[in-house]
Design brief:
The protein has about 110 residues and is α+β, with helices and mostly antiparallel strands. The protein has helices spanning about 5-15, 30, 60-70, 95-100, and strands at about 35-40, 45-50, 80-85. The longest helix has 15 residues, at about 5-15. About 25% of the residues are buried.
Length: about 110
Amino acid sequence: MDALEKKALEDKVIDAIKECYDPEIPVNIWELGLIYEVNVGDDPVVNIKMTLTAPGCPAARSLPIEVHERVAQIPGVSDVQVEVVWDPPWTPEMMSQEAKLELGFM
């Protein structure tokens, strides 16, 4: 898989992630800044590092599964690995400008 193919697949992965919403906040998890890393490998396995707004988040079980399921449906993806990490801890500063505007943080 060349660099252009990886970039195109990464864009599709990000689009799929943008369809996932935190159930308590009406903004997708990409704009919330909950996705720390998306790596598309040569095979093409997609590795995603994400976090949640808080360790006790009610979506702690469902959100990583939803991310996995949406990305796994993308044609050309051979496997998906989703890792939930807590470092660095999520803060509202990690949200995109769009999310901050929508939630009244600006």
